[in-house]
Every structure is written in C-alpha cells, then in structure tokens.
C-alpha cells in the first residue's frame, strides 16, 4: 500500500487519530512550531488534510500544498474551507454534516426546561439551605405539543 502523507491541523479524538495513523503517514502540524519551515520542507508530499474551523483551508493554505487532493473537515460547517477554490483546483472536500443535530436539539429542550422551571435556581436554593426558611417560588409550566406530518 502506498504511504500517503496526511496533514492533521490539530488534535482530534484519540481513536480517530489512531485509525488515521494506521492508514496514512499522519503528520501532526502542532508538533512543528516553525510552520513556515515545515511547509517549505513538506508541502510537496501532502495529499490530504484533516482540519477544523480553527485552521482554515483558505486559498493561501491550498496553494501551499501543490499535491493536495482532499480536505476532510471534522466539523459540521464548511465556512473555513474555500469551497470555490477547492473546486477550481480539483480538491475534494468532506465534512461531518448533521453529526450533532439531534444532540443540539436535546440540549435546547433541556435549556428551555431548566429556564422555565428554574431548575438551576431551585438547585442553588436547596443546596444553600434556604428550603428550611420557606418554599421555592412557583415556576412556569412548559407544554410541548408534537405535531405530526
């Protein structure tokens, strides 16, 4: 199997990093404090990039990697990738769409409940011992109606 150089811009889940390391020559950019020197010496061999929004794949970055074939973003959005320029250069782009959609919805419901029912405030009330001096104030009821299609 051909040894393909893949640049990882920042640490990821250890399992993902381990799996990528098994399949590719994984180059961890954060291990190179002198970025300009690194790119000068390694840019011609890098064919893939694993990145995130904190290390954008903009025009300059893409141009610095002449052998680049794919940018794989481990994030939902792609605002940090110059999609038009990738298309123009023939560089494929991937991401992880909808990976957090349901989790974000769950958290939104949880935040609505804790806000309307005063769960955090009530927790502080009980833990501080104020419950001994009187009842906690009444809160707002939340009613959710599920609409069927």
Report on the architecture of this protein.
There is one protein chain. This protein is α/β, with parallel strands linked by helices and 149 residues long. It has helices at residues 14-23, 35-42, 59-63, 83-89, 101-117, 119-127; strands spanning 5-8, 25-28, 46-51, 70-73, 92-94. A five-stranded parallel sheet has the order 2-1-3-4-5, with helices on both faces. Helix 3 links the parallel strand 3 and strand 4 (70-73). The protein is elongated. The mean pLDDT is 88.
Number of E-state strands? 5
What radius of gyration results from the CA coordinates? 24 Å
List the total number of helices.
Answer: 6
Distance between the termini: 50 Å
- Which sequence of strands runs across the widest sheet? 2-1-3-4-5
Give the low-pLDDT segments. Answer: none
Kindly list the characteristics that best describe this protein:
alpha/beta, five-stranded parallel sheet
Secondary-structure blueprint:
Layout: E1 5-8, H1 14-23, E2 25-28, H2 35-42, E3 46-51, H3 59-63, E4 70-73, H4 83-89, E5 92-94, H5 101-117, H6 119-127
Parallel strand pairs: 1-2, 1-3, 3-4, 4-5
In short:
This protein has helices at 14-23, 35-42, 59-63, 83-89, 101-117, 119-127, and strands spanning 5-8, 25-28, 46-51, 70-73, 92-94. It is α/β, with parallel strands linked by helices.
């Amino acid at each position: 199997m051909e040894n393909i150089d893949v640049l990882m811009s920042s640490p990821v889940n250890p399992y993902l990093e381990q799996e990528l390391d098994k399949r590719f020559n994984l180059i961890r950019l954060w291990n190179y404090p002198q970025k300009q020197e690194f790119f000068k010496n390694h840019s011609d061999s890098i064919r893939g990039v694993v990145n995130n929004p904190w290390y954008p794949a903009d025009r300059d970055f893409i141009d610095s990697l002449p052998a680049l074939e794919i940018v794989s973003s481990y994030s939902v959005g792609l605002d940090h990738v110059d999609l038009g320029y990738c298309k123009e250069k023939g560089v494929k782009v991937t991401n992880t769409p909808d990976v957090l959609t349901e989790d974000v919805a769950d958290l939104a419901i949880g935040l609505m409940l804790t806000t309307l029912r005063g769960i955090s405030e009530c927790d502080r009330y009980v833990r501080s011992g104020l419950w001994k001096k009187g009842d906690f104030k009444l809160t707002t009821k939340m009613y959710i109606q599920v609409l069927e299609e």
